[in-house]
Structure formats: structure tokens, C-alpha cells
Amino acid sequence: MAAHVNHTNTTQPEPEEPVDWREVGVKCRGQAGGVMSQPKSSDTALDTPSERQLLSGLVGQELFDLFMDKFHRPPVEGELVPLVQSVLAGDFRVEDIDYIVNGTRPPPPHNTEGVCRTRSDCHEHGDCVDRMCQCEEGFFGSTCEKQYCPNDCGEHGTCVDDHCMCSEGWEGVACDQVSGILVWLDFQAANLAHDRTGNTFPRISKTSPTLVSGIRGAKAVKFGLEQVIELKDRGVEIGSAWTISAWTYTPLPDTMHYHTLTRGYDGDHQIMVHATTNELGTFDNIGNTAFHTCSFNMASVTPGWHVLTAVGEGGNTTFYIDGLKMCVSDFQSTSDVFAVGNTQLQYEAQQPWGIVHDFRLFKRALHCSEIENFYVEMRDYAPDVRVAAQPTATPYRRDHP
User: Fold this and answer.
1) Start-to-end CA span in the chain (Å)
2) pLDDT, tens digit (0-9, with 9 covering 90-100), for 296-316
3) What angle, 0 to 180 degrees and rounded to 10, lies between the N-to-C axes of helices 49-60 and 77-88?
4) What is the per-residue pLDDT for 200?
5) Shortest CA distance to 115 belongs to which of 125, 99, 97, 128?
6) I need a surface site. Which of 21, 116, 358, 380 has the fewest CB within 10 A?
7) Element (H, E) at 55
8) Which residues lie below 8 Å from residue 151, measured CB to CB, with a gap of 6+?
9) What DSSP assignment string belongs to 279-323?
10) What DSSP designation does 98 have?
């Protein structure tokens, strides 16, 4: 059972022997896949020796040159597999590359076998002209018997019987929409406060958070004192099961304050780090039971970018770092999420979190394998992060964070 920590206690804990924080975490043993599933691999998509041999030959020859000419980069596995399959089927054309990479459909291919007499010979998806099928947009093959799946269903789906079968946690015609997502802030818009889902219209504080370099060279924001992003007018309801995930940079700023990643309008702090103990946890404002630690010291995390995820379900909040289950708090908020990166301005926004990239709020509890694979997708990239001096301030205390 997690202990309740009195947040007014300013006594510094006794120093402990350093422990590798990763040794505390528990690796998810479930089957990989789901909302953040790994990209398709040619090792699983190509089964026959002829396909493997063809893939090897194409990488070093025509496809490599074609990709470099068109996109100024080499192809990746998820793009090569459908091209290889089209070569084996005898349907490959240079125009197919634009479709697979950009989703731009090539002109309808012609039937060169001279087998059609009527439209029915073209499977009702093309016209028979000079005994050759001229296929409608979206169909191809000598008799227009094949249909394109949008973008080959991307990295999170499989084209089956002319439509995309999405991996768990993904939806949409092309399996390119994360299921259950309520808010997605990527901080790439000019005003910083753009929700990619369109569900909210966030507003930023009068003093805008600072832009810094984030993952893969994208933008991230650094929240300081009186800097916050607020969602809707009174927050987004999260209900009985939810997930909050964000890339964050450690160490957190030394402000002598609590660090709040999310808080409700008049509700709880779903993710908070204690001001004096650096323990990760939650804060119950509605029930007045104060801070609930999960007994993990955030100061022990190695400097750099990490994925912090909190899952609220069954009365508890489970915390993950880089896909590892780190700890469990015995409290779960079921109120709303209103403030991101700090407390809201009505409470003076004196609990800045620090640097955040790619913030997501889900209306469901993600599986541990989904959380693990989100990290796996990004971990091989070493972001170039230039961090300005962290803000400092005089100590600020509230009886009710």
C-alpha cells in the first residue's frame, strides 16, 4: 500500500545509495503490439526465398535509386514490402512508389493481355477499351481485380480483402488514427496549443512556454512559472479508465515547487512530483486525502528524454517510464484534465513541470505492451536538445496544490 506523504513537510530525506532506476522497473511480458505497435518488418512479411532474394536485389539496385531520386532518402522496410509483392505479381510500375510513400494513387494501369470484351471482364471496376481494361481509380490488375488499400494500411494495419484490418488500438480507413485518444498536443503549431484530435481548443498562458528542440528535431515546450496550457473551459472528463503519456526531459527543473504535469479544473493532479522528496505520485483534491506517492524517486532517472505514462484504472494509478512499470499509487483521479505542464492560472501556475514533447490523453487504460512499444518506436533516436537555464523562484507553498 502506497504511503500518504504530508506535502507540508519540508524535511529533506536522508541520502541513499544510488540505485539504477531501471532495475526498479518491471518489463511488460505481454505480446507486443497494439496502439503503439512496431512497424511492419520484412522478416515477417516476406516468407519465400524468392521474395527475400528479390528484396535484397531491389534494395541495392532499382528501388534504392528510384527512392533517392524521388525522395532523397533510401526506402524503409514498410515501403519495400508492397513494392516487392507488386514486382512478384507482375504489376510493378514506377508510379506505385508515389502511392505507397505518399498515398498518391497512380494512373489506372492498362490490361496488356487483351482478354476483356465487356465491362464485366474488368470486374465492373474498369472499362474495356480495345480489349484492354482501363481500371477505375483505386483498382489495378490486368482485369481490375485488385484494389489498393490506402497507404497499404500504414504501419498499424494489414490489407485483407481490399480493406485495412487495423492493429489493436488503431482505427480509420487507413489504420492511421489512434483509438480512444481524447487530446494530442504535439506543440508543432505556431501557437503551441494545437490539439491534433480537434476535440479541444487549448489556450496558453499570457507568457508562452519556451520552444526547445524535441524528439527527432521536432518542437518541445519548456514550462516555467506562470506558463501553462489549458484545455477547454473546464477541462476534459477522463472517467473511470484513462491514460496520460508524454515525452519529458529529466532532470526536472529545480524550482523548490511541486511539479504538476496535469491537473483538473477544480479536481485532482493526475501526475505530480513531490516538492521535497521528488517522489512520483498523484494528489487527491476532491477527497482531500492529499498526495499519494508511488514511492519512486524521479531524481534517480538518468538525464535525457524519457516517456512517462500514467494509467488510471481500478482505483489505482500505475506509472511507467520508458515502457517499464515503475510503481503504483493507491489513488486514481476520475475528475478531468484541464491544465497541462503546470497548475492553472487561477492557482497562479506555480508548479511547472519542465520540458514536454508529444502529450497524449486517452479515454481508456492502455495495455502494458502498448506502452512499451510506444517507447520502442522512438528509443533509437537521440534527440538534440538544447535546454536553457531552468527557472528559479522563491519557495511557494499552498495548503491545497
Assistant:
1) 23
2) 999 999 998 899 999 999 999
3) 120
4) 75
5) 128
6) 380
7) helix 49-60
8) 100, 103, 174, 176
9) EEEEEESSS--EEEEEEEEGGGSPSEEEEEEEEEETTEEEEEETT
10) H
How far CA 54 is from CA of 71, 95, 98, 260, in Å, comes to 22, 19, 20, 53
- C-alpha 50/C-alpha 57 separation (Å) is 11
Tell me the angle at which helices 49-60 and 62-71 cross, rounded to the nearest 10 degrees: 50
Question: How far is it, in rounded angstroms, from Cα 353 to Cα 27?
Answer: 26
CA distance linking residue 140 with residue 374, whole number of Å: 35
Matching residue, cell 480493406: 163
Residue type present at position 28: C
- The residue count of the chain comes to 401
- Cα dihedral 100, 101, 107, 110 sign: negative
Q: How many Cβ atoms are within 10 Å of 18's Cβ, its own excluded?
A: 7
User: CA nearest 258: which of 153, 348, 375?
Assistant: 348
What's the rounded Cα separation, in Å, for the pair 335 and 61?
57
Report yes or no on whether pTM surpasses 0.90: no
Question: What are residue 178's phi and psi, to 5 degrees?
Answer: -70, 130
**Alpha-carbon gap, residue 53 to 61, rounded angstroms:** 12
Q: Beta 157-160 vs 355-362: how paired, if at all?
A: unpaired
Specify burial of residue 395 (Cβ count, 10 A radius: 0-12, 13-18, 19+).
exposed
User: Do residues 33 and 167 make contact, with C-beta atoms less than 8 angstroms apart?
Assistant: yes
Predicted local distance difference test score (pLDDT) of residue 325? 92
Amino acid identity for residue 53 in this structure: Q
Question: Is 192 in contact with 393 (CB distance < 8 Å)?
Answer: no
What is the predicted pLDDT for the residue at 64? Answer: 62
List of residues 6+ apart from 93 with CB closer than 8 A: 86, 106, 109
Q: Which three cell numbers stand for residue 6?
A: 504530508
Rounded to whole angstroms, the Cα distance separating 142 from 326 reads 56
Distance CA 122, CA 138 (A): 13
Residue 189 confidence (pLDDT) = 65
